[in-house]
Specification:
By secondary structure, this protein is α/β, with parallel strands linked by helices. The protein has a domain of 214 residues: FAD/NAD(P)-binding domain (3-Layer(bba) Sandwich). It is built from eight helices and 19 strands. The strands form four sheets. It has an eight-stranded mixed beta sheet. Strands 9-2-1-12-19-18 form a six-stranded mixed beta sheet, covered by helices on one side. Helix 3 crosses helix 5. The radius of gyration is 20 Å and the shape is globular. The N and C termini lie close together (12 Å). The structure holds flavin-adenine dinucleotide. The site of flavin-adenine dinucleotide has 42 residues, from helix 1, helix 2, strand 13, strand 17 and helix 8.
Length: 339
């Protein structure tokens, strides 16, 4: 039997984990990315994210969102072990725990934690969820990219696919430079840009970019032992001391800029929680475009009319957390169709 060829459109965390799973399932895989995978370019969410491997206040979300997020989080220890062993690049998965400061709904939080066997401790007026991990996004992407290369996955970088039209079958997909890319099946993992690619097909994909800005401080390692969350704002520290604070949630289209007002807001909130940040060096200020969806629910499915086109997109605020499970689910679906 000839090996089926699958093109994955977009090389963010969702595309890379999907490509890895598909290649492990025995498919020939090509990832097409309009920029360079694992580099900070124009707005991709996966590089820009904070890397908290858990939903913020999960009791605020529907069960489907949390099921996907918790299943994704549970796959990370094994995935990161594999990535480190095989590539030598450490994604720095770290058990930081998440400390939630008031205001929060304590009854809802404890009920949810009990129901999902998630440890939750009262520490003064704060709530500590000690099982929450963080991961370092750029390193995660670098190690995924390296593993894909080692596994023989083709990476077609700086190659942008054009929006497609309605069709029963996708036999080839044009790039913006006039190339025609052919495969047996295609998976759209294009994050915030997925709607633009598919809007001329029968699919009503409800995805729009939602910008998030983050400030990066340089602090001595060990300044912040836990991820700290308060009222829509969070901070977390990497092993080498870099401390992230953010993030905004802005509906500004595909604008990937950063703003002085967001910088001031983030600074004020960060300093209120950690006064030693006053006068600390701000090393970087960046933004990323989340693939925003109503209720934070991604689409992991076959296209309703184009039989060899699949979607794994719209993970909004938790794409890093959800990616390994989302990749597992779409691979299972494709494998079932190909048998
Ligand atoms: C500030 C911020 C903080 C966040 N914090 C967290 C967090 O703590 N935990 C968490 O789980 N999630 C977090 N997220 C959300 C998470 O980062 C996203 O849900 C996730 O990265 C989405 O991944 P993706 O691969 O779908 O999208 P992206 O990373 O955006 O990747 C899509 C890729 O598709 C490419 N592409 C688009 N169109 C085309 C085309 N036509 N042809 C070829 N390539 C194309 C793009 O260049 C891009 O590389 C955060 C996001 C932001 C912005």
């Amino acid at each position: 039997m000839t090996q089926k060829h699958i093109i994955v459109v977009g090389g963010g965390v969702v595309g890379c984990t999907t490509a890895l799973r598909l290649s492990e399932a025995g498919y020939r895989v090509t990832v097409v990315e309009r920029n360079v995978i694992a580099s900070q370019t124009s707005g991709e969410s996966s590089w820009a994210g904070a890397g908290i491997v858990f939903p913020l206040l999960p009791w605020m979300y529907r069960d489907e969102v949390n099921q996907l997020a918790l299943a994704g989080a549970a796959l990370y220890p094994q995935l990161c072990k594999q990535l480190l062993q095989e590539t030598g690049i450490d994604p720095e998965l770290t058990l930081s725990g998440m400390q939630i400061k008031p205001p929060y709904d304590g009854v809802a939080a404890r009920t949810w934690c009990d129901r999902h066997q998630v440890k939750c401790m009262q520490v003064g007026e704060d709530l500590l969820l000690p099982q929450v991990y963080q991961i370092r996004n750029p390193r995660l992407l670098q190690s995924l990219k390296q593993l894909l290369i080692q596994r023989g996955v083709t990476l077609l970088e700086q190659t942008q696919l054009c929006p497609i039209q309605e069709n029963a079958e996708l036999t080839e997909w044009p790039t913006t430079t006039g190339q025609m890319l052919q495969a047996d099946a295609y998976v759209v993992t294009s994050g915030a840009w997925s709607f633009e690619l598919l809007k001329d097909t029968a699919l009503q994909l409800n995805i729009k970019p939602m910008r998030g800005q983050i400030l990066l401080y340089e602090m001595p390692p060990g300044t912040l032992p836990h991820i700290v969350y308060q009222d829509g704002f969070y901070m977390l520290q990497r092993r080498d001391g870099f401390l992230l604070a953010g993030s905004t949630l802005e509906d500004v289209g595909f604008d990937t800029g950063v703003t002085e007002s967001a910088r001031q807001q983030i600074q004020a909130k960060a300093e209120a929680i950690l006064p030693s940040l006053k006068g600390a060096t701000i090393h970087k200020h960046w933004s990323g475009l989340r693939p925003g969806t109503p209720e934070n629910l991604p689409t992991i499915a076959r296209h309703p009319t184009i039989f060899n086109l699949y979607l794994n997109t719209g993970h909004f605020r938790y794409g890093v957390t959800m990616a390994p499970e989302s990749a597992r689910r779409i691979t299972e679906l494709i494998a079932a169709d190909f048998h």
